[in-house]
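re: ur question from yesterday

yeah so i grabbed the chain u mentioned. its 373 aa long if i counted rite. heres the sequnce exactly as i have it in my notes:
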Amino acid sequence: MNRIYFDLGVFTYWSEESLENKRLVSKDGVSVSDEPVPGSSGDEMDPGLSDMLRHLHSAGYELNICDTLPSADIIGRLDRFGIRSFFEQIITGGSEDILVKHLVRFRGKDDFSLFVGTNEVVICAAEHSQIPVIAYGENWMEYRRRAMAYALSPIEIEDRAATLSVIHEVARKTIEKKARVLGIDGIDFAGKKFFVKKLGRYFDLLGKEYTVLNLEDFHRAVEETYKGEDPGESYYFNGFNNEKLINEVLDPFVKAGSIDKVVYCIDSTNDAFVNERHYRISPDGVMVLLGPMMFREPLLRYFDVTVYMRCDYKESEHRASLMDTPVYGDDPLEVYRNKNIPAQKMYVQRHDPAKGRDFVIDNSNFHRPVLVS
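ran it thru and got these structure tokens back, copy pasting raw so excuse formatting
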């Protein structure tokens, strides 16, 4: 069961976009004042929230209220907004401990739960119940760093919920399987780093130890990467020093069950092994290894759980063009088109990296990843 809990403050808050639209309508399409429209944040509800509730309900989420207000006050406000029928449970309590008891009682072993709002008591209860928080409401700025994510509009609440539900599935399987090495593969700019950052926050919430390794730290010297006439083919065969990764990190970790080691990786500016990486993973920790073209030998055998992130090549080029600092030389897009994309297409054609994976995630729309399988 997937459950989302809201505090009542969510439904008394209007997004800036909705407020602006209301101002335009109230002025016959002409914006002549920056003053809020009277009654727009208390007596009426942002219409985008009604759409959001319908969409979430249609997607199979059980919707609930969790607040510190008395039940009668909550029901009265829901009735006034005309949204009471969307909610299965109304959980209320004047203290964090009471709310934790309710939240834990409703939560099943495999359930995904999420809290949306900015009620500090409920946020604390959610954290102690290992429930991620999306900050949304009048005081979202105050809680955005404590929260797993924040949203600025109702549609963004849907986006964050979709993202976190996918992350939950990956985290749950990793923990249940007692995986030691979790692999996250995908073409460049598929969103692997962003996904791993969110996954790490979720592991933190669940109390799961983890250490992130990036295959990019084990790339080869430039002259080896460009060996041969075809840059794409050369990158496919010679782009990464898998032997160094295996000999210095993966084999020692798998054999000993833990690792506490400094590894010196190559610096692309001078091809010297001067980049220091300290990998420390306890027997209870999981290694999260991310990178492109990994689900082939010799690396494939080391993964206990595998995630492949799909992304349209044109979308990945667009994301590459938005980088503030070029990462592939003076003309990063040309290098990306002529080297990285051809190599990764070769990899997909030869190995079909989505086949047999534990999870395949379509991340072409990075706002809302879709769990394909």
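noticed a couple things. Confidence is low (pLDDT under 50) at residues 37-41. also The two ends are 18 Å apart (CA to CA).
anyway ttyl
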